[in-house]
Each structure stands twice: as C-alpha cells, then as structure tokens.
C-alpha cells in the first residue's frame, strides 16, 4: 500500500501548480455550468495548449496528444479544484461524444467534429431520454425512417440540457421497428438548424431553464451522420454512458463542499453565536466528514484498479449512487446552517455565496435522478454486483472482482 | 500509488479465514458460546498462525507487521464472530510496550508477548467516556480505582490501563489487590469484565514517549481494530442476506427478485465498500503518520459504527422472521456489532472528539 504519487508525478503536480499560479488572474471565475463565452473559449485554448484540457485527444484532431495517464489526469483535477480555477470544458460533447467518436466514429466524423468540439466552438446536446423512455431508455420511440440517402426523424426528446445553444445533437433513434428493443436503435448526429426541429425550454425547480424538450417533425438527416452501424446505437451509447457515470461522482467536489460547509459554520451566527459552537451541527458535520473521507479512499481504490486495468467488481458500481447523495447532503447541511438565510434566492438582499448552496441543493436532486435514478442504480448494484435475480430469472453468478 | 492489499496481506487474511471456517462455523460458534466446547480447538488452530507474534519486532521473535495487517486479522475474526482474544493481547499490549516502554521493558516483555506467555487485557474504557465515575489513579506506584468494560481479561496475565493523568501501566492480573468480575453483554462471543484495583502493583510504561501521545495512539489503534471487527461482521451479514435472498421463495418467487429486497442489499454494499477503503486508509496511515492517528481513529470508528448498525438491521430484515430467530445465526453478528459500536466510544462521543481535535469545538 503506497499513497504517494512518486517523484515524477509530484514534479508534474508542481508544474501544474506553477501554471495555475501564473494564470491566476487570466481565467474566468468558476462556471456554474458551461457558458460558451469568449473568455471561457480563450481559457480552453490556453488549457489545450498546455495539456490541461483535451489532454489525450490526438493532435490530428486538435488535442494535446498526450498518452492517457490516469494519475496525471487526477492531479490536474485535484490542483484545479484546489486553486478554484475552472477545468477545461466538461460538457456532454467533450465528455461523451468525443470519446465515442474516437472509439467508433469514421475518420471523416473525427476530423469534422472533434476539433471544433474541444475548442468549445461546436456545442452538443444529448438526445437520449424521452417522455416515455427514462429509466427504461431502450424503450425509446423516436422513429427514423430511411428515405433515399437520408433518415427522416419524427418524435420527441426531453431533458436535453444545452439544446437551446447547441449546434449539434447526438441522438438515439429507432430505425428498425421490428427488431428486438435493444437492437433497433441507431446513433445519429443531427444539426440543430435542421428544419422541423423545435426546441422548447424546460424550467426546473431551480427556476432556470436547465433542460429542454426537443420535437422532431420530418427532420431529414443524411445517413453518413450515423455513428457505428445501423441498429447498433445501443452499443454505441453504452460506450458513452460509462463516461457519464464516472463523471457524476467526482470526490473532489465533495471535499471542496465539505471545506465550504466548515467555513460557513465558522462564519454564520445564530443568536450571536457561531454555528460551529452548536454541538448538533458539529455532529452532522463530523458525520459527513467521515462519509467524504470514505468516498475519497474508495476513489483511490478504484483509481488503483484503473491503473492496473483490473475489475473492481461491485465496488465500481456504487460511485454515482453514493457520490450524488453525499453532495446533496452536504448542500442540505449548508442550508440548515444558514437557516432562513438559506432560503433566500437569486438577487435577494442578505444572500450568501450568490445562492449557490440553494441552487446545488435543488440541482443535486436532478443529478440523483438523472443519468440513471438512484433506484435504477440500486437495481444494477443488486443484480450485476450481488447477483440477485432479474425478474423471474434464476440468479446469475457474479463476476469475481479483482482484489 | 497503489491503494490495495498486497499479496502477502491478502494471504494473511485468507489463512485466518481458513482456520476460522474449519473451527468457527455457525454450528461451532453455537457450541462455543453455549458450553465452551470447541474453544480449545479454535485456540489450537489459531495458535499455529502465531498471531501473538504479528506485531512484536523481529529481534523479539515477532513478525514486525503493522496495524493494517492486524486490522485484516481482526476483520477475519469479526467475519466469523470468533470468540478469540486478539486485539488487546496481540496488538494493543505490544504496541503500548513498543511505543511507551523503556528499553528494558521492551527487551523483557516483547519476546514473552510474541510467545503468547504474556497476555494483556485492555482497561481503557474510562478514556472514552467514563461511566459511573469509574477511574484509575496512581499513587506511589500503586493503582487504585475501578475500570469497566475491560476487554479480554479472561485468560490474561496483565492488564493494560492508564491513570487519570494519561500514563500507561501494565498491572499483573494475579494479585490479591486486583479483583475481576465478569460482565455479561448482549454478545456472547467476546469477554468483558470490570476490574477493581486496590493499591495494586503496576509497572508504568515510562519510556521516552510516555505521556498523552502514547495513550492517544493506543486508543486510536483500538478503535481501528473495533472498526475492522465491525467491517468483518457486516460483510458476513451482507453475504448471509444475499445468499438467503437467492434461495427463499414467497409468492412463488425468489425474494431477491423483489426490488424492496434488492434495494436493501444494494444499500448495504454501497455503504460497506467505501467504509472498507476508509478502514484500509486509517490502519495503513497509523504507522506512516502517527500525528493524524487519533483523529483518524475517531472518524473511522464513528463512520463504521453507523454503517455496521445499518447493515446489521437491514440484513436481519432481509431474513424476515428467521433473522430474528437464533436459528439463522444472524444474531451473533448483530449483537457483536452492537457491542463494538459502543466500545471505546460510541459514534456521538467520537464525533465530539473529532470536532475537538480539529479545533471546531
């Protein structure tokens, strides 16, 4: 057991810190969600040039072209979070579409889409969920019918974040209606300016239009926009979903939030006493500290598996469930610490930290539900991780985890 | 960077589990806790593994291993609810001597500890929230007072305790001035006693690191070991629940196909896996970074106590009525966890300590 990163990696960390120190006043403030402003694009360009964004994307497609190195990526994430500097863009185009194209796209698709995407010049949205296909995603009904060199698409998508600013959508469409449910889906890239495509904002409980509904009426898309083969879209999409689930449980976020709650408890007063002096709050804080630490070292254990290329088994399936819940609980504690001040919102007088805790508290619930609800996660853990039976089928043996 | 058990650590844990699965099956456990039958066989079987020599250094005839290895052994003992004295006798006593003893004390005692001739019980409950005004005081080299919840006093030769001012002492058990009475807890797999010291002889551990730091380290190690025991017991409960859900039928279906049951099992494993990582860290870091050990000991035990209580409850519920009946064996682990949660500081006490150590309070 060795928790040190070693000399070479510590040198890389020092290099990263030096970069962040030199650029402390040259980056936009932390983005709550990716706005594609001029200053954020300029920051992205600097990050790519220095290998802090699009690090492993080949140079041919506009990336930095480094060999994948999990520890270096982790060091970058750790140091950026510590410095309060925004990381490279982490929208769905970069985190989900680009890896998919690299794995399964044609050369033409890679050349055409990857360079503008990583620069933030081409914005993507994800067209997966439908009103009747949420947790049961493979039940999606948006239809694509072959017509000459095109598919003609009709149907509806929902929970499409950034659709209002997106240039392109990567979309799951049922192209083989007679095939079994998982085998009839294709993965298609759709320009958002295509006639017949209508985007309507969906306002969430946070009060912001954080998602959209997208309606398709005879939307015509050329067949060359297919990624992978026809009918294999489920396989293509799963190649990207694993990237999303990994992203949703970043332990650095929890550690930062914990530090934020500690500061808040030192600063906020109730009846003239610091909240930190209240033992009930201290107990809640210390309990969450234990959970944050457990997730931190759990992450280290999974990191070790990634480096060795071994299967962590059920331990690898719980991060989304536990991580999202933990972040939500941290926000809940922060709100309780603020009391009535914790329900002020937007431009109200007396508001703390721009209302970011209030926003997180609500938005986190969206994250607990999105990307596979907590209940679906528990089914996956029980069935694939513990080998409990699916439906009426007999239990299946669980693959043994590597140590 | 490698946060995983080594091959040797894994083999150590497997060898203990191997011995236990032969000698401490559920049936054997029933006999051992009812009549004591089979305890000698278990002792003999584990003696072959020379667990008493795990911690003492090589020059004392030991293996010189660390707290992580000790925690892995304790986890295995917990996973079988084994009625076997290990933590106080084979880990905390040698650690106390190594940490706080003089050269002469180390030279004299560590080989005896490694051999299993000298066996310490742990009387530090008063340093984790004293009850009924129990306390030990020292005057002119003699100990007076009462210690409650003394661990592993049965079959011990010495008692490791601390005076009010935080100095560690080893008192021989067999003297007229030490009176011991057994305490009966809900759990029949571990022994607890109360000790009355009436001007008892005791040797102070008076090496260089003698004062508060040594006591804090021993308490931390003890809490990490309790956490390891809870982890082992919780893992067994999870496995029992999952196995039961795969064979028990109701409404013509395996109960494990019902989401209500699946979710109970998923919740257990989702809490247990990160808790395991936290335990590995606390036990590993104990030897690397002793300054952080007292805080880590509080955090890991408070967290593990929460997790183990949740697991012991949900695993029982998955078993339905059978979980409540002794026939299933669930009760051994439920009750062993119940004791560990309170032992050497319950979660609320430990979180209070953690807050204090971080300057929050």
Short description:
The complex is a heterodimer of chains A (403) and B (361). Chain A is built from eleven helices and ten strands.
What does it look like?
The complex is a heterodimer of chains A (403) and B (361). With 403 residues, chain A is of the alpha+beta class. Chain A has 3 domains: 7-89, no CATH class; 124-231, Butyryl-CoA Dehydrogenase, subunit A, domain 2 (Beta Barrel), CATH 2.40.110; 249-401, Butyryl-CoA Dehydrogenase, subunit A, domain 3 (Up-down Bundle). Helix content of chain A is 44%, strand content 14%. Chain A has helices spanning 7-22, 38-50, 70-83, 92-104, 107-119, 233-247, 251-267, 279-308, 319-338, 356-369, 374-385, and strands at residues 124-127, 143-147, 150-158, 168-174, 185-191, 197-202, 211-222, 226-227, 269-270, 273-274. In chain A, the strands form 3 sheets. A 4-stranded mixed beta sheet of chain A has the order 1-4-5-8. In chain A, strands 2-3-7-6 form a 4-stranded antiparallel beta sheet, with no helix packed on it. In chain A, a hairpin with a 2-residue loop joins strand 2 and strand 3. Chain A starts with 6 loop residues before the first helix and ends in an 18-residue tail after the last helix. Chain B has 361 residues and is an alpha+beta fold. Chain B has 3 domains: 7-115, Orthogonal Bundle (Butyryl-Coa Dehydrogenase, subunit A, domain 1), CATH 1.10.540.10; 120-204, Butyryl-CoA Dehydrogenase, subunit A, domain 2 (Beta Barrel), CATH 2.40.110; 213-357, Up-down Bundle (Butyryl-CoA Dehydrogenase, subunit A, domain 3), CATH 1.20.140. Helices cover 53% and strands 14% of the residues of chain B. Chain B contains 12 helices and 10 strands. Chain B has helices at residues 7-23, 26-34, 39-47, 67-79, 87-100, 103-115, 212-245, 259-288, 293-318, 321-324, 330-342, 347-357, and strands at 120-123, 136-139, 142-151, 158-162, 168-172, 178-183, 192-201, 203-204, 249-250, 253-254. In chain B, the strands form 3 sheets. A 4-stranded mixed beta sheet of chain B has the order 1-4-5-8, with helices on one face. In chain B, strands 2-3-7-6 form a 4-stranded antiparallel beta sheet, with no helix packed on it. A two-stranded antiparallel ribbon of chain B has the order 9-10. In chain B, strand 4 (158-162) and strand 5 form a beta hairpin. In chain B, helix 4 packs parallel to helix 7 and helix 7 runs antiparallel to helix 8.
